[in-house]
Write a structure and sequence with these properties.
The complex is a heterodimer of chains A (about 350) and B (about 200). By secondary structure, chain A is of the alpha+beta class. Chain A has two domains: about 10-110, no CATH class; about 115-345, no CATH class. Chain A contains twelve helices and nine strands. The two termini of chain A are about 40 Å apart. Classes of the chains: A alpha+beta (about 350), B mainly alpha (about 200).
Chain lengths: ~350, ~200
């Protein structure tokens, strides 16, 4: 800490000045050993002797093989000879023990450095930016990015943190049972199609809410006993007088593969967003453009003019559907408006 | 952090998460500066994403990434050569990024941490070519051939340089490591019995 080292650019220029290649072919360490090297290194690296019988040269030869022995590259007669020599030579035995101890010390200190979390975030963001920017002109991301400035990269970045790090990753707690009567069924072949069909019904007003509520706790409780999986919406923690740009409007049930799935709806000033939730056992998330954050993989879909982002975590599959014309930055607020990082997504102070 | 080239292209993907520690470690031994190291890693990942199509199917992703990182760094060094400056080994090496190993007893954990700090310090004091090869071989376990390709030097040089690097590192660690660990352990023991 705080220690300064002289910039050693000079070493770069001298990198190879003192290097004495032992052998030009490292493909086979044993080839190296058989051929031997010429000239002992001035700082102690032993050369392979071509003359056996002189004690010093013998030790030099075996010392050369120490690294190979540590790398478990010696075998057969070569290994026997090495071990036999070490057994009979105190100096080489001591040298070998020192090398072993060094290897053990280095091994214990792995990893030498760990990438800081901030760097991991930076790289993740860079991956997303690159991924989205490389899509074709049909990409939903490009269009949304032009509108929002930050675009879906911010959305995913936060969602990644949300899922991986934050308790708001839809902390799942309650166990529910299947409701006998499903109010509405939306027939669709896939999870994405179901999500889009549900969303379209929602924005068209064709899908009546099973519960109208702005309370995540009430909605969580309402789903209890109605869907065959456990989940819980993050509780709102608004400051007095604070107004969220997106508000929960309610919840309802839709059918997916004959079983009830949870649909949570949100309303903004001019737009609507829906979040479809089902067990990952029945709702398989796949396809689209994939972007991975650690253990989490997001799938981007562009379906019938809607942005659909799906992912699976903790045994549940999610499908967030939003309108193209709406900002992705604002979409983030659906889940993050009640969190500490919500300011990042507010378009207005 | 996995990236694929997109629709209709081979399913060649990069998962940077498994390489980040290694890349960052390599960047640290090259630059000895946390900020510079982070920038190097980020730039490496970006360039890798753009150049993923040039990665041979049978190529080593790790070696490829390390090569990109080293080339970026060398270019930066060349650009700075007209105005050499001092690089500061900053506070990154204090272990703040390392999660505590709760499975170990506190003394063992502390000793390990002290030892790691000593090893880091000893490596960072080595000349560039030595600390570089120590990291590539002893920590990242690249093969001699991979290192030779990465460093653009004869393969035999890799072994000779590694042997000399180990020798210097062993000398540097001798005494200081034992003394430091013993001193810290004694300190802990004293404080522990005083309670």
């Amino acid at each position: 800490m705080g220690r300064q080292y002289e910039h050693d650019l000079g070493f770069e220029a001298n990198l190879f000045n003192d290097d004495k290649p032992i052998d030009g072919n490292i493909l086979s360490p044993r080839v190296f050993n058989r051929r031997g090297g010429k000239g002992a290194d001035a700082r102690g690296f032993p050369q392979a002797s071509t003359r056996v019988g002189q004690s010093m040269n013998n030790c030099d030869k075996y010392a050369t093989k120490t690294l190979l022995y540590l790398d478990e590259e010696l075998e057969g007669q070569e290994l026997k000879d090495f071990l036999s020599h070490v057994d009979s030579c105190a100096g080489c035995r001591e040298q070998l023990e020192a090398e072993k101890e060094l290897s053990a010390t280095l091994h214990r200190s792995r990893p030498l450095y760990s990438a800081p979390v901030a760097l991991q975030d930076r790289v993740a963001a860079a991956v997303i930016d690159n991924s989205t920017s490389s899509r074709d002109q049909r990409s939903m991301y490009r269009r949304v990015s032009r509108i929002t400035g930050e675009g879906l990269s911010g959305f995913l970045r936060i969602f990644a943190r949300w899922q991986v790090l934050a308790p708001a990753a839809l902390t799942i707690a309650l166990c529910l049972a299947i409701i006998p009567n499903i109010e509405r069924r939306v027939q669709a072949a896939s999870y994405v199609e179901t999500a889009v069909a549900s969303h379209r019904s929602y924005i068209n007003g064709a899908l009546r809410p099973g519960l109208e509520s702005r309370s995540p706790e009430e909605i969580t409780a309402w789903f209890a006993g109605k869907v065959p999986f456990a989940f819980r919406l993050p509780a709102a923690e608004s400051a007095p007088g604070e107004r969220f740009p997106y508000r929960l409007t309610g919840a309802t049930l839709v059918s997916f593969k004959g079983s009830p799935a949870a649909l949570v709806t949100y309303q903004g000033q001019n737009d609507k967003i829906s979040l479809l939730i089902d067990s990952s056992k029945s709702a398989v998330v796949a396809g689209g453009d994939e972007v991975r954050f650690g253990e989490l993989t997001f799938h981007y879909h562009n379906d019938a003019g809607f942005t659909v982002i799906t992912w699976t975590t903790h045994g549940l599959s999610y499908a967030l559907v939003s309108s193209v014309s709406d900002g992705a930055r604002a979409s983030c607020l659906v889940c993050h408006q009640s969190m500490a990082d919500s300011s990042k997504f507010r378009t207005h102070p | 952090m996995r990236f694929g080239p997109g629709h209709g292209q081979p399913q060649q993907r990069l998962d940077f998460s498994e390489y980040l520690d290694g890349l960052y470690g390599y960047a640290m031994v090259l630059s000895r500066n946390r900020t510079e190291a982070e920038d190097l890693v980020q730039e490496t990942c970006l360039r890798a994403l753009r150049a993923i199509g040039r990665l041979r199917a049978d190529g080593s992703v790790k070696s490829w990434l390390f090569t990109i990182l080293r080339n970026i760094w060398l270019n930066q060094v060349r650009q700075r050569r007209t105005a050499p400056d001092l690089l500061e080994l900053d506070a990154d090496d204090n272990g703040a990024n390392e999660p505590a190993d709760t499975a170990q007893d506190p003394l063992a954990e502390y000793v390990n941490r002290v030892e790691r700090e000593q090893v880091r310090a000893a490596i960072q004091k080595l000349p560039l070519e030595f600390r570089e090869i120590i990291l590539l071989r002893e920590y990242e376990e690249l093969s001699y051939q991979e290192i030779a390709a990465l460093l653009d030097c004869p393969p035999g040089t890799v072994m000779s340089r590694l042997a000399r690097a180990r020798s210097k590192l062993r000398d540097s660690l001798a005494g200081s490591l034992t003394a430091a660990v013993a001193g810290k352990s004694e300190d802990i023991g004293t404080r522990g019995t005083a309670v």
